[in-house]
Amino acid sequence: MSPSELIIPHGHVLRYTLKERLTHWVAAGAYIYLLATGLAFWSPWLFWVAVILGGAPVSRMLHPWAGLIFFAAVWNMYVMWAPQMRHTDVDRAWWKAVRYYSTNQDDKMPPAGRYNAGQKFLFWGFFWSTVALLASGVVLWFPEHIPWNLRFLRYISVVAHPAAALFTIGLFLIHIYMGVFAERGAFGSVIRGDVSIAFAKRYHPGWYDEIVGGSSTPRK
Amino acid sequence: MSQEILRIQKISGHAGSVPGEDTQRQYTVCKLIDTTTCIGCKACEVACMEWNDLPFGETVFGNTYQTMPETRWNYWNLILFNEHEREDGTLMWLMRKNQCMHCAEPGCLAACPADGAIVQYTNGIVDFQQANCIGCGYCITGCPFDIPKMNPKTNRVFKCTLCTDRVSEGLEPACIKSCPTGCLHFGSKVDMLDLAGKRAKQLREHSNFQNAGVYDPQGVGGTGVIYVLHDATKPEIYGGLPRDPHVPWTVKLWKGPLKWLGNVAMVGGLIGLFVHYLRFGPKAREDEDINPRGEKS
Ligand code: HEM
Ligand code: SF4
Ligand code: SF4
Q1: How far is the CA of B37 from the centre of ligand 3 (A)?
Q2: pLDDT tens per residue across all 220 residues of chain A
Q3: Are B235 and B215 a contacting pair, CB within 8 Å?
Q4: What's the complex ipTM?
Q5: Residues flanking ligand 2, CB < 6 Å
Q6: What CATH number does residue B209 fall under?
Q7: Domain residues for B99?
């Protein structure tokens, strides 16, 4: 899509296509299920979560399958977004100024493109954690088929899987906080697909310049 | 009230106190296996199958005196056979009755996430409660002896119960009852250690087994099944008995520090974000259409 085609009437711009939104919600739905059932087996205090989700044996049976769906969705994100997630000089400057970002002094931030450096970090953090979760998750899926002399794989996986999950939980909490509470309008962008021109200008000035500023360079 | 519950001193995946902790004055039971007098007749294998009503499976002949390569979910008790060549070139046929060791600090129980799927009774017996098992197989990873086995049809894990049903009625386990040579003994841990020590001493002093000794590995807090070995310095030759078994350190890391760090980080993160919102609020209201550079859009 050429930049100017992203502009839609009534002062809005298209931020996410239907394909992008569907992928996001498949990943989100699978992730929330994985989070709930995973945490149930992580802590005895949360075991009841597995019980209300259809019983603990059912949760154990479905968690790895949901993991495969989650991985497929994240892989699709990788295919769609990886080129836009490359680290740039603006991102380096963004990280240096991150304390202004976290204290809502956005006017002191360097102009982010379609994704700011924090969002890129979230993307790569999720991507690599998901690879690690898949690799360790497959071992946890069939521990009885891992030969005794390869048992170190199980010993690594029981630590690697929850450690990677915890890392994603940190990312996830910040992601929800930013998308639902801090940046009003961001949640709508993954539901309806569009954001207001003001939103684009405020949070992604580089991207805004590309589409509205009439520049003919394709978005990066 | 059910006595079963009051007999539980350790329980897996359980939030809150343990029902039977500190309630009974039972002594710790123990099975003693004297490998030096085992003839590998497999009466104990049959007795185990019979008493526990286990469904039959195919045996696997591997050109040795062993019924199958390893224990199965429905075959809990297996005599491992090993032909061992000694330094002087003579051969020994080593027979070791393999089954759950009923560890004092069981790795299976530590790893299990399901409430009450693995329990340890006050007499020390470690027992799986298949009704509570979710089939995750974490116990397989926790066990240093490769004992818990999954029933592929039901996804529940099984192993030797030390005939907990017989023992709670004051009987000895079925395997003990069947042994024709008297190489199996059952009693309190104290008595069995005493008997095993005497037998090992006898082997050292009256036979040519200078290294004879008792196998009661302290890495898992001692076990409810102990062995007398001709050569206690080389437990590996007895079908791979681990020299110094421990619950894998990654399992301890996972169930210990990682759990606490993770919980503190998750709760701390939630509180932190909430406080951040109270302090700074949203970056802008949805209806605010002045961008941070101060221009009207
Ligand atoms: C990507 C593919 C994944 C596969 C194949 C997979 C598979 C598994 C398996 C087989 C287990 C063992 C018991 C159970 O079923 O709960 C497990 C545990 C767990 N999973 Fe996953 N999983 C995946 C992704 C995830 C994700 C994205 C999360 C994020 C929240 C997650 C969180 C957990 C947690 C917290 C546990 C419990 C760890 C513990 O008991 O300490 N998993 N996973
Ligand atoms: S498979 Fe093992 S660890 Fe998992 S619930 Fe069953 S007994 Fe517990
Ligand atoms: S030998 Fe394995 S299954 Fe038996 S109590 Fe010890 S850790 Fe558990």
Answers
A1: 25
A2: 566 677 777 778 899 999 999 999 999 999 999 999 999 999 999 999 999 999 999 999 999 999 999 999 999 999 999 999 999 999 999 999 999 999 999 889 999 999 999 999 999 999 999 999 999 999 999 999 999 999 999 999 999 999 999 999 999 999 999 999 999 889 999 999 999 888 898 899 999 988 877 544 444 3
A3: yes
A4: 0.90
A5: B 12, 111-112, 114, 117-118, 128, 133-139, 148, 157
A6: 3.30.70.20
A7: 8-247
